[in-house]
RNA sequence: GGCUAGGUGGCAGAGUGGUGAUGCAGCGGCCUGCAAAGCCGUCAAUACCGGUUCGAUUCCGGUCCUAGCCUCCA
């Protein structure tokens, strides 16, 4: 079964056919590094990470580029506020992003370009747009002239008239058209600046992505991804710039956009004070559970984040890891053909991760009925191979339940032994006291029928 | 106001023109010294109103509701 993906540009599910199967190109808009990553930053990273893993399953070469926007007025504001350089701000939050994404099991992209490393090419691209007649200089700014591109609005489903009528913002007087947007803007003394033919300044937001895509992936790419809010104006503008420069050549074959995350039914925003940082959620639950929660809803649907969603994800993973623990006696080595077709088909259907998770549960259920060692090994291979595509279930089940390198290990075992002794002596009062004590330590005892016990953290 | 997406059991969440998955929670049972875990069983939903159809949750129209974008927010 071929991969089908929903293309924002056509509003339809389409069969995915890459331009070159040996070199599939995927570009996803990465973070602007001006603060710690929140759960909304994590969603596209995780969603497109699964897409990346799925593509690697079917194609030899997948060139995945996710940028870091390290030039932005929000970074400038943060730097001014702290009286440090913009490099210090962007460096700090790039590091936090890398750390958090690793905690969520997100693979690094093949290339992670930064705006500051592409200033020369950005300036060159703007100059080419001016030469081509699609952009003009005005009072130290360079602006893209929207009416110069008749296809403008096609991606986001807006026509030029509507945009004109809908203009509610005060328009800079030097704009030839209300909809024209900035490619380059002049910097004041306290703002970072690069030399350009139009004076010292800095690039606008949209041109950065166009430049990095051209530089690293070429004129036409297979898939362009990002959050739903980026459709307009960011991606519309990228598309206008790149298409104009490349003689009308298709910019991206497919556009994919993930939905937003709400927090307790409300939009997550700084003004509401309900922004959930990834680092704070990691205090609440393992990264794998956060990842699972992000994948438990289809990527295009809005996701309402609550404590309940997170704890249900933990319990789902508990269940799956419990099955893997039962299969611990069989050794397996994985190969791609171990991924069950039903599971793969779910993902190939526009990344239907909830349906894929259902297949995982269905596999887990089979553990109760298979008996031969061969069948158990096959089942374990299927579970692990499928889990790997979703980026879950890859750790040792014991590590999942008990946490890594527990310093209290010796004490726990001592208490367990004392309790076992008390049970043998039928001193249930003492046995229950010890169990109570362990419970208070966050340890849950699981008795086996043979009189021994295991434990897990709760 | 314009554009877009969506409204499925207590919660989460797929799918489908022909008796509505899956997980969590609940309930009953087995197991247990008692629990927990596990196992077996079980309750429970397609916003509303029309239309097309032998048949609609699914397709079409309307109503109501929700979310997003139109403001350099993932």
What does this protein structure show overall?
This protein has 458 residues and is α/β, with parallel strands linked by helices. The protein folds into 3 domains: 4-258, HUPs (Rossmann fold, 3-Layer(aba) Sandwich), CATH 3.40.50.620; 271-402, Isoleucyl-tRNA Synthetase, Domain 1, CATH 1.10.730.10; 409-457, no CATH class. Helices cover 45% and strands 15% of the residues. It has 16 helices and 15 strands. The chain has helices at residues 39-58, 73-82, 86-103, 119-131, 160-166, 205-216, 231-245, 278-284, 287-295, 307-326, 341-348, 353-366, 373-390, 397-402, 409-424, 428-440; strands at residues 4-7, 12-15, 24-28, 62-66, 135-138, 141-144, 181-186, 201-203, 221-227, 252-258, 261-263, 266-267, 303-305, 443-447, 453-457. A 4-stranded parallel sheet has the order 4-3-9-10, covered by helices on one side. It has a 4-stranded antiparallel sheet with strand order 5-6-7-8. A 3-stranded mixed sheet has the order 12-11-13. A hairpin with a 2-residue loop joins β5 and β6 (141-144). It is elongated. The two termini are 41 Å apart. The model has no long low-confidence stretch (mean pLDDT 90). The protein binds one RNA strand of 74 nucleotides through α1, α5, α7, α10 and α12.
Short characterization:
By secondary structure, the chain is an alpha/beta fold. It has helices spanning 39-58, 73-82, 86-103, 119-131, 160-166, 205-216, 231-245, 278-284, 287-295, 307-326, 341-348, 353-366, 373-390, 397-402, 409-424, 428-440; strands at 4-7, 12-15, 24-28, 62-66, 135-138, 141-144, 181-186, 201-203, 221-227, 252-258, 261-263, 266-267, 303-305, 443-447, 453-457. It binds one RNA strand of 74 nucleotides through α1, α5, α7, α10 and α12.
């Amino acid at each position: 079964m071929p991969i089908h993906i929903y293309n924002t540009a056509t509003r339809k599910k389409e069969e995915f056919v890459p331009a070159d199967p040996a070199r599939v190109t995927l570009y996803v808009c990465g973070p602007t590094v001006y603060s710690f990553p929140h759960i909304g930053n994590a969603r596209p990273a995780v969603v497109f990470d699964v897409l990346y893993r799925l593509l690697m399953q079917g194609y030899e070469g997948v060139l995945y580029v996710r940028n870091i926007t390290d030039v932005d007025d929000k970074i400038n504001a943060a730097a001014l506020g702290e009286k440090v350089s913009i490099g210090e701000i962007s460096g700090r939050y790039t590091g936090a992003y890398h750390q958090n994404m690793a905690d969520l099991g997100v693979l690094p992209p093949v290339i992670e370009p930064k705006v500051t490393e592409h200033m020369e090419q950005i300036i060159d691209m703007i100059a080419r747009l001016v030469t081509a007649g699609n952009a003009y200089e005005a009072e130290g700014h360079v602006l893209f002239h929207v009416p110069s591109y008749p296809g403008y609005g096609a991606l986001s489903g807006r026509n030029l008239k509507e945009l004109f009528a809908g203009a509610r913002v005060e328009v800079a007087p030097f704009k030839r058209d209300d909809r024209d947007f900035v490619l380059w803007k002049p910097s004041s003394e306290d703002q970072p600046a690069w030399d350009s033919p139009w004076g010292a300044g800095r690039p606008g937001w949209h041109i950065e992505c166009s430049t990095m895509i051209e530089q690293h992936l070429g004129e036409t790419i297979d898939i362009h991804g990002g959050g739903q809010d980026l459709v307009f104006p960011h991606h519309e503008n990228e598309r206008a710039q790149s298409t104009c420069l490349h003689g009308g050549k298709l910019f991206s074959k497919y556009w994919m956009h993930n939905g937003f995350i709400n927090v307790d039914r409300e939009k997550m925003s700084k003004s509401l004070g309900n922004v959930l940082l990834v680092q704070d959620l990691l205090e609440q639950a393992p990264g794998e559970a956060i990842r699972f929660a992000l994948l438990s809803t289809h990527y295009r649907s809005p996701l309402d984040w609550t404590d309940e969603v997170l704890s249900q994800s933990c319990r789902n993973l508990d269940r799956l890891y419990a099955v893997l623990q039962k299969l611990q006696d069989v050794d397996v080595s994985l190969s791609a053909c171990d991924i069950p077709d039903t599971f793969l088909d779910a993902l190939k259907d526009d990344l239907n991760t909830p349906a894929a998770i259902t297949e995982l549960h269905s596999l887990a259920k089979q553990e109760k009925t298979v008996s031969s060692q061969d069948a158990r090994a096959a089942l374990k291979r299927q579970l692990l191979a499928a889990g790997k595509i979703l980026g879950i279930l890859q750790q040792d089940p014991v590590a999942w339940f008990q946490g890594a390198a527990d310093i209290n290990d010796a004490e726990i075992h001592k208490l367990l032994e004392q309790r076992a002794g008390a049970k043998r002596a039928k001193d249930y009062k003492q046995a229950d006291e010890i169990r109570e004590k362990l419970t208070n330590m966050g340890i849950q005892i699981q008795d086996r029928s043979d009189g021994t016990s295991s434990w897990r953290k709760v």
